[in-house]
Amino acid sequence: MQTEEVLLARQSYQQDGFYICTQPLIPRDLVERAVAGMDAVRAGEYDTGIPPRPSRWNPGDDPNALCKIEKPQIASRAIMELVSHPALGEKAAEVTGASAVQVWWVQLLYKPPSAPGQQPRTNIGWHQDYNYWGAWEEESELFTAWVALSDVTPETGPMNFVAGSHRWGLSAESDFASQEYEALRETIRNAHGQEWREVPAILPPGAASFHQKLTFHGSGPNLSSQPRRSFAVHMRTEKSRPKGDLRQGLTAFIDDPTHCPIIYGDVGSLL
Ligand SMILES: O=C(O)CCC(=O)C(=O)O
């Protein structure tokens, strides 16, 4: 039976293209272990003996820059435990209505506080995720659970979603790396001529937001004195297929549960 709460969450996800779940899903002790795991991976220490996938930021790089590390779950047991947590799978299935959910990629995102006297360069430019996910068939049901590991307040540069933008189609203007936050917003706004309503994902540690593959989102600088810590956990449902049924690039590891755990439902429906 579906509760009123589940129906409202699903309705909001379908109408707006995202859902913000402000109740923590991940237990406090696991959040703390994953924070330690995040710091270890940032320092190049891997308790699994396996490094993450090649990343834009590497140990020893500028500590004041945005740190984005690909597939940290293969390098840290605690991070794998967090992204595989059953509560995350259950909530993802509730929100999307899926019968099976697999984590197919993860990004560690660490946004350091702005250094005094320096121009912050930790924005995440407005984008739609599917612009970067060409390895998947276009109709594939792909989405992201963004899990907070620190208190995400308005000062920390929270992710902002543009309500309803998942209905605008795939747009050429996405740019994750852009630091021109305001200018890119204007370009996208002008290109679409639609109502632009931003909703910030304000979250306590252990809580998560869920957004669809075409929902525009971006985030500004971290103006607080603490790092903003999160994982972008990219997921798929049984309604997804790699292009040409190939395993390459972003889909290379989907048959390996030690990289891409199935966190809800029937494995068979994802084959
Ligand atoms: O961390 C952010 O502000 C944006 C993350 C993101 O692009 C994503 O989760 O898809």
Q: What's the structural domain tally?
A: 1
CATH superfamily: q2cbj1_9rhob like domain
Overall outline: globular
Q: Tell me the number of helical segments per DSSP (H or I, 4 or more residues long).
A: 5
Mean pLDDT: 96
Q: Determine the CATH topology.
A: Jelly Rolls
What's the CATH architecture name?
Sandwich
Distance between the termini: 27 Å
| Helix/sheet category | alpha+beta
In the CATH scheme, the class would be Mainly Beta
**Into which percentage range does the β-strand content fall?**
15-25%
Low-confidence stretches: none
Radius of gyration: 18 Å
Q: Which cofactor or ligand species appear?
A: 2-oxoglutaric acid
Sketch the major β-sheet: 7 strands, antiparallel
Counting DSSP E segments of at least 2 residues, the number of strands comes to 11
- Bin the helical content: 10-25%
Please provide the ordered H/E string of secondary-structure elements. HEHEHHEEEEHEEEEE
